[in-house]
Amino acid sequence: MSGPNNAIEIIPNKLYWISDRAPPRNQPNSYYFCIDNELVYQPFYLDFGPLNIGMTYKFCTELERLTRNPSYSAYKIYHFTSLLPNKRANAAYLMGAFQILVLNKTADEAWQPFASLPPFEGFRDAGGTNCPYRCSILNCLRGLEKAIKLGWFDMATFNVKDYEFYEKVENGDWNWIIPGKMLAFACPSPTQIDQQGFRVWTPEDYVPLFKQIGITAVVRLNNKTYEAERFTRNGIRHYDLYFLDGSVPSNEILTEFLRIAEREPGGLAVHCKAGLGRTGTLIGIYAMKHFRFRAEDFIGYIRLCRPGSVLGPQQQFLCDMQDRVFSWGDELRNENELATGISKLNVRDSNNEEQKTPMSPEDKFIMMHGDKGQAERLVNAKKSNQNSPVTSPFVPKEKVSAQNRANSTSPDTKKVKAGLSIFDKSPVRHTTPNSTRISNVKKPGFLR
Hints:
- A hairpin with a 3-residue loop joins strand 5 and strand 6 (about 180-185).
- This protein has helices at about 55-70, 85-100, 105-110, 135-150, 160-165, 205-215, 230, 250-265, 275-290, 295-305, 315-340, 360-370, 375-385, 415, 435-440, and strands spanning about 10, 15-20, 30-35, 75-80, 175-180, 180-185, 215-220, 235-240, 265-270, 430.
- It has 15 helices and 10 strands.
- Helix content is about 40%, strand content about 10%.
- Mean pLDDT is about 85; it is low at about 345-350 and about 390-445.
- A 5-stranded mixed β-sheet has the order 1-2-4-3-10, covered by helices on one side. A 5-stranded mixed β-sheet has the order 5-6-9-7-8.
């Protein structure tokens, strides 16, 4: 391998990743870029990643353009990141995702170059407890790989502009987790302006959107804050499956949720207070049963789609439930295969290792008794991160088209590219013996 000794090679003689105090100096025909301060995770508490799927898309799209730009054909390109554990972990995730999405590698192949480096910090949950569970970068990459195989994410059709629009509190705060089947969203407000003066969505705001994207039912997991009739009178069924904030669902709740999901002909919109913990946990159970999605990898995947999802004891709960839920799915598939004579899913998975992390006493208590106020803290943190103004602009319902939604297959590529402006300010450090030769070249978005 040529180049600095502490750099790892991603594309031979072309693309490298390096973490250090500063970029190496005096490397001939080398170009360095750093996005540590441009693609920034917005924490709820002590969480620091992974960077969401929108940021992942932007990074991969722009880096692919750079590596294929003939103006840079003579240059070795370095993705530089600092030694700060949080920045280092997110930068490694991004380069791993690039290898999966652009270079068509498996998650394990993408991670192999990083395996020999000093250990990376594992991603922690968004809760306020001292939770020992950590989601590894490899879990996130495996989750992304699985989602691609299942058709849940496609670089060619992903609409980054819509993803960034609808994830905001004032624009509905919702995300597809299983496109077409499972949507996670925050609890609808009884009024369009909440107690803090923020613009939020009511059931009536969600109804036209839900009808356009094929949602046939809503499942509420938190306390009643609005009348279910506001959905049902508009033709959307509504179910209540309450369990304590921060806790894990009972067997009865699990059984009923799966029954509802399997009975509904269309998509299911699931919410708790923040649409993160209880919501992510039940959607995870469905994904594990129907798609044999490993618990640890699902936690990584859902946090790419909806940062902050699955909290505290809910993480280990999903891991502990994995074998049991897999068996439920295997039984269902066996029944279907006997009836149809067709095998619909390869249920064998070579990555069967599970993380057995002992729960802290605090998490054990929360698992049984809940974490009162956690959801409210998460909602307030998201509002603060997004700096939602009191008079937030709101897109009228009639302007929310079927095309204008996250994970859509919109043919409007100009719309997709418009979401890449975050890179326009990104700093880049480069060293080359002939800097004037490259100074007049039009740089990709994140190098301007």
